[in-house]
Design goal:
With 256 residues, the chain is α/β, with parallel strands linked by helices. Helix content is 32%, strand content 21%. It has a single domain, classed as Rossmann fold. It is built from 7 helices and 9 strands, in the order βαβββαβααββααββα.
Length: 256
């Protein structure tokens, strides 16, 4: 398996019991790639390999993986088509590609329903900076068509939306993004230090809430060659794309 994003921990921990003989398990049973793997290097799982890797420019073995997963990666890459083509090429015939991407273009701010959303200068600055670097805010909505265009079959997609509030994973994601881009936003003149400190404090305000972008999950399988059978389910029997994705991520309350 090859993974980019947040699903690697659960997959590596459960691959042996869930997938059995369908995946070649061993020191390199699960490959996790990231352009900055410093937060992954301390992992000590016997079937997990962590590799510094840029999906748009560094090679992957072709026709090698039963499963390729990516989450919130392609929307940030100007070379997203090249990266997606590389992921598809890495699949064995009958292997599955699962990708999850935001669509923020379909959920614009509403000054009546979510007035506080308009006051966060840091969020506007972050979006502006990301746009300058090639962010595609609508990529989640395009995902279904892109998977089909790259030749995958049995393609399906579903969207989910969450209400973000203090202490939830979405608020933690916002905080991490703000902190990561802090210097760049200041240097660009988009915000001041006072703006930044005020907006960071608002993430802990009990009254803070905002709807997330739509998280679109799409999946498809590589075409089978003659005489081959599908690799299997992802990774257990399921019905519905949302249920597939929740089981795949190991979310609480979803069991085979």
């Amino acid at each position: 398996m090859a993974l980019a994003g947040t699903a690697w921990r659960w997959v590596a921990a459960t691959a042996q019991s869930q997938l059995g003989s369908r995946v070649g398990l061993g020191p390199q049973g699960v490959l996790v790639t990231d352009i900055d793997p410093r937060f992954l290097e301390s992992l000590k799982l016997p079937n997990l390999e962590v590799r510094r890797h840029h999906i748009a420019s560094d090679p992957l073995p072709e026709a090698f993986f039963d499963l390729v997963h990516s989450r919130l990666v392609l929307l940030h890459l100007p070379e997203r088509e090249k990266a997606l083509a590389r992921m598809v090429a890495a699949l064995k015939p009958g292997g599955w590609l699962v990708d999850e991407e935001f669509d923020s273009s379909s959920t614009p701010s509403d000054p009546i329903v979510n007035p506080g959303r308009l006051f966060r200068k840091t969020h506007i600055a972050m979006t502006r900076l990301m746009d300058n670097h090639g962010l595609d805010r609508a990529y989640g909505r395009r995902l279904f068509g892109r998977l089909r265009a790259h030749g995958l079959t049995s393609v399906a997609a579903e969207g989910r939306i969450f209400m973000w509030h203090p202490g939830c994973p979405g608020a933690s994601l916002l905080r991490a993004n703000y902190e990561q881009l802090h210097s760049a936003m200041i240097d660009a003149g988009y915000i001041t230090e006072e703006d930044f400190d005020r907006d960071m404090a608002r993430l802990d305000d009990p009254s803070f809430m905002m709807p997330s972008p739509i998280l679109l999950g799409g999946l498809g399988t590589a075409a089978l060659t003659e005489g081959r059978f599908p690799v299997g389910t992802l990774p257990v029997p399921f019905t519905g794309v949302a249920r597939k994705l929740r089981i795949f991520r190991g979310e609480a309350g979803y069991r085979p």
